[in-house]
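This part of the workshop introduces the protein records we will be handling. As an example, a complete record with its sequence and its structure tokens follows.
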Amino acid sequence: MADKFKALMITNEKGNYKSNFELVSLKDLPDYPVLIDVAYSTVNYKDGLAITGKGGKVVRNFPMIGGVDLSGTVVESNSDKFSQGDRVLVNGWGLSETHWGGFSQKQRINPDYLTKVPESFSLQEVMAIGTAGYTAMLCILALEDMNITPEKGKIIVTGASGGVGSISIAVLAKLGYDVVACTGRLEEEDYLRSLGAKEVIDRNNLNREAKPLERSRWAGAVDSVGSKILSTILSETMEGGVVTACGNAAGIDLPTNVLPFILRGVSLLGINSNTCPSERRNQAWKRLEVDLNRKTLLDMTSVETFDRLPAIANDIVNGKIRGRVVIDVNS
């Protein structure tokens, strides 16, 4: 076993915020029972914020190895939950915030944070899905829990060309929903329609000061952007409709009012994928095995080398990434 291995370390010395590749040893890793040979990680919007420092307080402890996600193989375990050779993944659980994360060739992890990789998925495929895709599935489960079925009406997906948006569209379309993709990148219309979107609209049509109630358009929504766009969607959601909120790419503010809730019975459901209970995580992954077309996933995914990570992080926070990016930490 190599004594030193590569990791992306985030530091903040007296306000001097940096992200650099460093060589780390096993003795530097956290004192958790399960040691993993990491194969892949991925780049979510949150990862971009953490690496670039544009996310304010995404990283809570320094120094920090970034990476919200990882997949790999157990090489040592002092836990009765996992054995040497098990294929595992992690989504969230404070990785890259308070716990060292997946941008490392090896990592020690709390066994409570680990999920066994579903048999039909490869280590690369589960990172093609990653936190973004797993969050998308949590949003869809929440819509189903509230009885938002395909016949109820259109589902709008914001941030459509990003990770959450792309996988949401693909899964919803496969399930028979009439999906409307909302994007600031209309040049991606062909891509979004290839995922299953029936209609593509400009986000600027929603990024405005909405009236307290507007014409009913949506039975449901998967929103990853927040701010005025989310407010407008709420004002346009039909009676009994459900809006799931899982991101803040457009801002953390929400300039709304009570009328959609008290006059139309609209529900706004927050989706916290970071500390979601293991039972719900397993449910989401089982559904992804069935409801996400593998060819569609492959077509929306690129695999990049470890060294490309900082540039990709910068691109994702600037809205220049389409679909999903997998990082091969050993290349």
